[in-house]
Amino acid sequence: MNWGFTIGGVIAILTCIAHLGAGEYVLSKMPLDRFIVLPKEDPTITKQTFRFVWHTLTVDFLVWGVVLLVLGATDWLEASQVIGRLIAVCFAGYALVIAVLPMWSLRRVDTLLRAPQWMLGVAIASLAWGGTLL
C-alpha cells in the first residue's frame, strides 16, 4: 500500500464533498444581481454557467481522489509514478490559482489566510508526489 497516494486520495475526496456543499450553499444565497450579465441576457444563465464550472471542478476532485486511492491500493500499475506526478501537478496548479487569483484581484496578501483552500491543493500535491518516491 502506498500511503502517500492513499492519504492524498482521501483528502481529495473530502475536498470534493466540501466543495460540493460549499458551492451549493454559496450559490443558493447569492442573488442574481451579483453575476455579470451580457446585455439582454437572463442572469440565471450566468449563474447556471458558474454552477456548471464549479461542479466540473468538484467532479475533478472526486476523479483524481479515486485515481489516487486506486494507485495507493495497487502495486501492479507500471505507470503509477507518471500518473501520480500528473495528479500532483494538477493539484499544485489548483493551489497556485486559488492562492494567486484572489491576491491579484483584491491586491491583498491576507486573502491567503481568509481563503486557505489553496493549502488543500498543496497537501494533496505533496502527498501525491511523495507517493511516487516510495
Primary descriptors:
134 residues, 5 helices, mainly alpha, elongated
Summarize the structure.
The chain contains five helices and no strands. The protein has helices spanning 3-29, 43-73, 80-106, 111-114, 118-133.
Summarize the structure in words.
The protein has 134 residues and is mainly α. The chain has helices at 3-29, 43-73, 80-106, 111-114, 118-133. Helix 3 packs antiparallel against helix 5. The N and C termini lie close together (10 Å). The mean pLDDT is 87.
Q: Supply Rg.
A: 17 Å
The portion of residues forming beta strands comes to: under 5%
Annotation, overall tally of beta strands: 0
Mean of pLDDT: 87
Molecular shape = elongated
Poorly predicted tracts of residues = none
* Secondary-structure class: mainly alpha
Number of helices: 5
Helix content: over 70%
Order of helices and strands: HHHHH
> How many strands, what sense, and barrel or not for the largest sheet?
none
Distance between the termini: 10 Å
